[in-house]
Amino acid sequence: MNKHSAPSSQITFDVQGHRGCRGLMPENTIPAMIKALQLGVTTLEMDAVITADKKVILSHDPFMSWEIATSPEGKSITFKEEKNHNIYRMDFTTVSTWDVGSRPHLRFPRQEKMKVTKPLLEEVIDSVEAYIKKNNLPLVQYNIETKCQPSTDNIFHPEPAEFIGLLMEVIRKKKLTARVIIQSFDVRTLKVMHEKYREVRTALLVEGISRQNLAGNLQELGFVPAIYSPEFNLVNAEMVAACKEKGMKLIPWTVNDKPNIDKLKALGVDGIITDYPDLMRIK
Q1: Pairing relation of β-strands 180-184 and 141-146?
Q2: Tens place of pLDDT per residue across the chain (283 aa)
Q3: For residue 279, which of 106, 12, 23, 6 has the smallest C-alpha distance?
Q4: Separation of alpha carbons 164 and 62, rounded Å
Q5: I want to staple 72 with a disulfide (CB 3.0 to 4.6 A). Which of 18, 97, 172, 175 is the partner?
Q6: Cβ(224)–Cβ(246) under 8 Å?
Q7: Three-state SS for 112?
Q8: What's 166's DSSP letter?
Q9: Strands 141-146 and 43-50: what pairing?
Q10: Could you give the C-alpha distances from 46 to 181, 214, 218, 258, in angstroms and in order?
Q11: How far is CA 107 from CA 36, 81, 275, in A?
């Protein structure tokens, strides 16, 4: 263990870099993860999808997004076209011919531009751990979201049991079960985790005003996860108290301005997920 590492139980406030640090670097890429480490995050948040040859890679969408992707021919794609470029129908070699970092991001003007591709989860872990070791940094947690939903099973991704099996194969190979969190909006994947891999923490993602009922959300899930992660504007003092009572950490997403970060910290949340980890350095 790194001599400066802090076990998850000792983290006083968990700063999670969303997709690495999407506000500053191309999302879900190795440069984004390294930049987030430099900014002092305690957890790297990322999204996982599956390729046709059953590789686990980092990507928010299970297809090439029109907002960030440039084709091997150097062309941009439209919103209407993006789902035609289905990652679950591409092998990893093909995925690697797409550039996902050169285009200016309309919603994140501070994002640095560079030619970069969607990486293997295994490659991300190796790069992060090597950087930590070389620079004598604290060990970090990995918060990995499964990008799946019932309506697109076997179209854009495998069914939950297979998806989780492929993901856990990488995590166990890298001996990271103690430092990984699996999060999802899809309760099915969390149920698989709870049934088969209880040594790994889980986080329930929640969005929208219709999902405000914490008790109902937990009833649907069927167990109490380690972390409850609602959209940040759903958080109130009552939710903070209810999570504490159930022994769950409360880590809202995606909090991108200092006033809301300060407000949530004052309410007593256990951490935040942000596109701008550099905001945590502003006193």
Answers
A1: parallel
A2: 343 444 455 578 999 999 999 999 999 999 999 999 999 999 999 999 999 999 999 999 999 999 999 999 999 999 999 999 999 999 999 999 999 999 999 899 999 999 999 999 999 999 999 999 999 999 999 999 999 999 999 999 999 999 999 999 999 999 999 999 999 999 999 999 999 999 999 999 999 865 668 999 999 999 999 999 999 999 999 999 999 999 999 999 999 999 999 999 999 999 999 999 999 875 4
A3: 23
A4: 15
A5: 97
A6: yes
A7: coil
A8: H
A9: parallel
A10: 10, 24, 23, 22
A11: 19, 20, 11
User: Which amino acid is it at 131?
Assistant: Y
Beta strands in 193-275 (DSSP E): 201-206, 227-230, 249-250, 271-274
Count other Cβ atoms within 10 Å, centred on residue 113.
Answer: 12
Q: Any idea which residue has 């069914």 for tokens?
A: 159
DSSP 168-215: HHHHHHTT-GGGEEEEES-HHHHHHHHHH-TTSEEEEEE-SGGG--HH
> DSSP letter at 137?
P
Cα(253)–Cα(225) distance, rounded to whole angstroms? 17
Q: Which 3 state secondary structure label does DSSP give 153? A: strand
How far apart are the C-alpha atoms of 182 and 188, rounded to whole Å?
12
pTM above 0.70, yes or no: yes
Q: Which two tokens stand for residue 23?
A: 């506000």
DSSP state of 167: H
Half-sphere exposure of 261 (CA within 13 A, CB side): 22
